[in-house]
């Protein structure tokens, strides 16, 4: 497929390379030149503007920092929407608000373009290896068309529904749950510390028994930076509990609240929709 890829940060660079490894033709754009030059050396074309990158694309993927960046790149001057051909698909894989997702859906519909929200769960090493988890929502036809690209970047795709904002809502919900887990662990560490138990032993037991899924965090956080306020027992006086707020700050709680600042409109509220776990992209069948 001819794919425009906009946003070559820590996640985007690996995702673009995964597409290229699977034989897709990638035209890349990035605000700063260094990541674009690096991927150009690996075989991608590089465009001067988002509109130029999208000019001949079947699908255009955005993987950008936040609402402001996405809105500027998609709807601003020399933007993606200006260059994307009619009936081509914009795949927004960034973590953005429900409100912006709704605006993008309407803006593309007015131009005869299609829009799919497909935010991801994963880390840069998973992006590099094509092992992301993807939550996709949009029209059935559009989701089916982008399946080859999703398969190149992810190990599993969850097809959420036909309203793009539903995928964004689910992604924000997942991020919220991450902060809740860390907050709960902070409370557990505080309680057991008061009982005289070494916090590192509590951490080891919980992440290897009851909550073995947290071993992913152990692998990706070898120096235990996320939980360092609780694991470095020697830095606190005896009996002093850790501050649970450290957990919120460590995982960007305020950033999540900014993304969720506005109320969810009635149109975006899910009625009877359930995510379907699929191996690769079920929509192609």
How is this structure best described in words?
The chain is 47% helix and 15% strand. It has 285 residues and is an alpha/beta fold. The chain has two domains: 2-163 and 269-284, NAD(P)-binding Rossmann-like Domain (Rossmann fold, 3-Layer(aba) Sandwich); 171-259. It has a six-stranded parallel β-sheet, sandwiched between helices. Strands 7-8-9-10 form a four-stranded mixed β-sheet. α6 packs antiparallel against α9 (164-194). It is elongated, with a radius of gyration of 21 Å. The two termini are 18 Å apart.
SSE diagram, text form:
Layout: E1 2-6, H1 12-21, E2 25-29, H2 33-41, E3 45-46, H3 50-54, E4 59-62, H4 67-75, H5 80-83, E5 89-92, H6 98-110, E6 114-117, E7 120-121, H7 124-128, E8 132-137, H8 140-153, E9 154-161, H9 164-194, H10 199-208, H11 215-220, H12 228-231, H13 245-250, H14 253-259, E10 276-279
Parallel strand pairs: 1-2, 1-4, 2-3, 4-5, 5-6, 8-9
Antiparallel strand pairs: 7-8, 9-10
Q: In what order do the strands lie side by side in the largest sheet?
A: 3-2-1-4-5-6
What is the CATH fold-level name of the largest domain?
A: Rossmann fold
Q: Portion of residues in helices?
A: 40-55%
Report how far apart the termini are: 18 Å
Main sheet summary: 6 strands, parallel
**What would the principal axes of the Cα set say about the shape?**
elongated
Order of SSEs, N→C?
Answer: EHEHEHEHHEHEEHEHEHHHHHHE
Tally of extended strands?
10
Kindly estimate the percentage of residues that lie in beta strands according to DSSP.
Answer: 15-25%
Mean pLDDT: 84
Question: Could you list the spans in which at least 5 consecutive residues all have pLDDT below 50?
Answer: 233-279
Total separate domains: 2
What is the highest CATH level, the class of the largest domain? Alpha Beta
């Amino acid at each position: 497929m001819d794919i425009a890829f906009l946003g070559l940060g820590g996640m985007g660079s690996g995702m673009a390379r995964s597409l290229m490894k699977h034989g897709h033709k990638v035209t890349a754009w990035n605000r700063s030149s260094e990541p674009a030059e690096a991927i150009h050396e690996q075989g991608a074309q590089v465009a001067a503007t988002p509109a130029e990158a999208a000019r001949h694309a079947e699908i255009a993927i955005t993987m950008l920092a936040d609402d402001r960046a996405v809105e500027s790149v998609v709807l601003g001057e020399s933007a993606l929407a200006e260059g994307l051909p009619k009936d081509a698909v914009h795949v927004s894989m960034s973590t953005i608000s429900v409100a912006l997702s709704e605006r993008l859906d309407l803006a593309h519909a007015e131009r005869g373009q299609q829009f799919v929200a497909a935010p991801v769960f994963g880390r840069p090493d998973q992006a590099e290896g094509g092992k992301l988890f993807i939550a996709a929502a949009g029209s059935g036809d559009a989701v089916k068309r982008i399946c080859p690209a999703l398969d190149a970047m992810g190990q599993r795709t969850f097809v959420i529904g036909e309203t793009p904002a539903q995928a964004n809502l689910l992604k924000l919900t997942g991020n919220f749950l991450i902060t809740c887990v860390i907050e709960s662990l902070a409370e557990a560490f505080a309680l057991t510390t008061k009982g005289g138990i070494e916090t590192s032993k509590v951490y080891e037991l919980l992440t290897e028994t009851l909550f073995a899924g947290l071993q992913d965090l152990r692998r990706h956080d070898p120096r235990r930076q996320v939980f360092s306020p609780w694991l470095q027992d020697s830095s606190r006086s005896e009996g002093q509990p850790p501050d649970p707020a450290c957990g919120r700050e460590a995982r960007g709680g305020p950033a999540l609240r900014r993304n969720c600042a506005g109320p969810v409109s009635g149109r975006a509220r899910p009625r009877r929709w359930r995510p379907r776990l699929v191996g690769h992209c079920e929509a192609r069948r």
